[in-house]
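Weekly puzzle thread! Below is a chain. First person to post its structure in token form gets bragging rights.
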Amino acid sequence: MEDINYWIWLSFFKLKPIEKIKLLEGFNNKPKDILDMNVNKVSRIINSNRAFESISKFRKEKILLEIIENKKTYSEEKLEEYMKRLKMDNICIVTYIDSKYPVRLLNIYDYPILLYVKGNIDILNNKGFSIVGCRDCTEYGAKISRRISNILSENNLIIISGMAKGIDTYAHLGCLDNKRETIAVLGSGINVIYPKENKEIYKRIIDNNGAIISEYCLDMEPRKENFPMRNRIVSGMSDGVIVIEAKKKSGSLITANLGLEQGKEIYSVPR
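Winning reply:
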């Protein structure tokens, strides 16, 4: 996509995902127009286009201020340098208007406008299940996570998880035991491995024709607020969510609840 630089530019805006979606809808999925138009014209579109009807007046003002600020700091040279880094690390970008974008994500309220992908981009629309659970899992939880993942991957189903400690790790390992594809969704930049001890799993996922994905820009450190946002992608990409040893008020239950809201089947493993 020749305009990918402008999609990246828009993705840097400090706005809610749904506000970025509305911006793109209001400007016919042409972020370059937002950059090229004068501020008065941009303001008129934000205040008159039907795409923004659900956005409050306060948030419309916030959107306009964010556009003004990012217009000032726009640098074609910096974006070109950013693209070179992506190319050197074999990282692709898929936007929500691309055919390879995970179509299931388009059914959620606030899907990412773009995803960074390292590895096999062709599996993003394959059928699969999310496996989620606690980080400090029991031996039983570890075994059952790995076993379920192993069985499902043998039957050509993709396992999607967050590459966190505990259940996530064993879910990915169950696929890797079979040399099958798995997808890890990060709560950090795609080039920031978290936790660091999963560096080898990160590499094995790529080597086994799987994929690492993230909506966050390069070098983004893992932040507490990133993980609930990451979880909507974990559940949103799946055909169903399998919960193993989730604690009360945990990120795993957030993922399960998001899955329910998204109309997914939720499965829980008994103790």
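Puzzle host: Confirmed. Bonus trivia for everyone else. The radius of gyration is 19 Å.
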